[in-house]
Amino acid sequence: MTSDTSRFAFARSNFPKGFRFGAATAAYQIEGSSFGGAGPCHWDTFAQTPGNTAGAEDGSVACDHYHRWEEDLDLVRDAGLDAYRFSMSWARVLPEGRGQPNREGLDYYDRLVDGILERGLEPWATLYHWDMPAALSDLGGWRNRDVADWFAEYTQIIMGRVGDRLKGTATLNEPWCVAWLSHFLGHHAPGLRDIRAAARAMHHVLLAHGRSMEVMRAMGLENLGIVLNFEHARPADESDGAALAAARYDGIYNRWFIEALLHRRYPEIVLEGLAPHLPAGWEDDMDLIGRPLDWLGVNYYTCNRVAPDPDQPWPALTSVPGPLPKTDMDWEIAPDGLAFFLKRLSALSDGNLPIYVTENGMADSAPEDDQTRIAYLDSHFAAARAAIDDGVDLRGYFVWSLLDNYEWAFGYDKRFGIVHVDFDTQKRTPKASWHALRAALREPAPAE
Ligand code: IFM
Q1: 250 CB less than 6 Å from ligand 1?
Q2: 154: Cβ below 6 Å to ligand 1?
Q3: pLDDT tens for each residue of 394-403
Q4: Is the beta carbon of 407 within 6 A of some atom in ligand 1?
Q5: Distance from the alpha carbon of residue 434 to the mean position of ligand 1, in angstroms
Q6: Is 71 assigned a catalytic role?
Q7: Residue 2 covered by a domain
Q8: List of residues 6+ apart from 205 with CB closer than 8 A
Q9: Is residue 7 included in any domain, yes or no?
Q10: pLDDT in tens, 6-52
Q11: Strands 168-173, 122-128: pairing kind
Q12: Burial of 50 by CB count in 10 Å (0-12 exposed, 13-18 middle, 19+ buried)?
């Protein structure tokens, strides 16, 4: 094993003082949804439908983090990281989605947050990372406008319990996945392929964000934001058709959410297709959606080559394979896309919004000697550093992920962890990337 000799090219001292290095996870991917009195969520039921997830795998046991969280937090601390980003499961807190809270679930998050703090780490929480309670899914989930009020109720309950000790809170993780991937492309729960459902989810997810922020502001909580994902849209060739297809892709994926949040508008190029399907009166919600954020989380992994598909209805586009080296997800490795987005987002917010890379990493099957992951992360750390040099107010960087975990529809085969998990024994083994990170972070930050 070469883990002790592998090195990142960067060290802590290459980044500004106070820059936070962290690792990220999500509840359904690691906790084990069958433990601790959690209610079923739509991923439990989605996985029980043939063909939806690899091997019909689900998150019922996952990494058994629900019982092993202390050992896992030790791994975050021992890597020399500063912060831990995790999510809280709505269905664990409220098994029916609303009404009676699950005391065991609330106690669990209470202990977890205290455990993070006891280890000298900053807790960064996400309120929703995709585990919609099945009882609310029955009522239409993200298609139902009432989801905003349900989410507000959940926000009030969980933040009433742990909000006082969190360093940063995001309402939602990756609304594009919540809405488009899950209601238009059908790859994630609830697995719909319906433009009307997608349009409603695209709006309601933002409305829910707005209501949740309103609740947390009223509670006097601070450092509130949202985590969006971005994928660099590149025309597949030099034709006008490919340019238009890429612009539409960019609009749906990379512009819809952030322009609503920062500028209270949806991009025209997307309204061309979605406007007929949006809920009546959506314009009246834009003021609530666009209330100020304290920070923005950026999840970045790859680029996408976009080509026109004129035989299909709007958005009439498709993706084609690109030439760059790929991860186990078949995602091209394109670190320049990260620098592109950091600069674009900084410009869009006039430099007035602190930005964090809240997820970046790769799936790589190497069990322990994951040199490819070290190279991947290094190239993205370099892109982040370059963006800082260009004036981007980038405050931190969370590696995805602490542990190998449940990669949604792909099951347990795609390994994103800097720590290997043997899913038969639940044994954790730090990989070369974990050791390399520890070496890079050991170097002290420069004096002021
Ligand atoms: O595992 C996911 C995570 O849940 C959200 N962002 C992307 C990761 C890799 O696909």
Answers
A1: no
A2: no
A3: 999 999 999 9
A4: yes
A5: 19
A6: no
A7: no
A8: 142, 172, 175, 178, 179
A9: no
A10: 799 999 999 999 999 999 999 999 999 999 999 999 999 999 999 99
A11: parallel
A12: exposed
